[in-house]
Amino acid sequence: MQESVRILFLCTGNSCRSQMAEGFARALRPELTAFSAGVVARGLDPLAVEVMAEAGVDISGQTSKRLEELSEETFDYVVTLCGHAKEHCPFFPGRTRRVHKGFDDPPELARSAADRAETMQVYRRVRDEIRDWVMGLPGNLDDEAGQA
Description:
41% of the residues lie in helices and 14% in strands. It is an alpha/beta fold. The protein has a single domain, classed as 3-Layer(aba) Sandwich (Rossmann fold). The longest helix has 20 residues, at 116-135.
């Protein structure tokens, strides 16, 4: 039996985008083994939990963690989801391939939102973009790796 592809989703704070990607990968692509981490750990964003629940994916049990907390794990792919994580992504020995697929930062965009409805619209847009990209896994990993 073939081992599943092991993917780490990495962003700055492991609070929103990487959590969404991990949640969608676990829910929509159970043949993959998904993890998420951040350059730092900022805690799970409650609005990310809320919009993921709207999409039928419960990420409330996931935890925000730093990359160092996964030092014993091996990955086939490390997917950076923001420029900061791409710049600070460490070297991974062996067969690990680094892939960059940037998504807007919902908390950052929401700072200029006029109200909660506009804030939620931003979170939902990014959530849906992440879901659509995750649906193309693992095939689109090679597409993104070619562009990195």
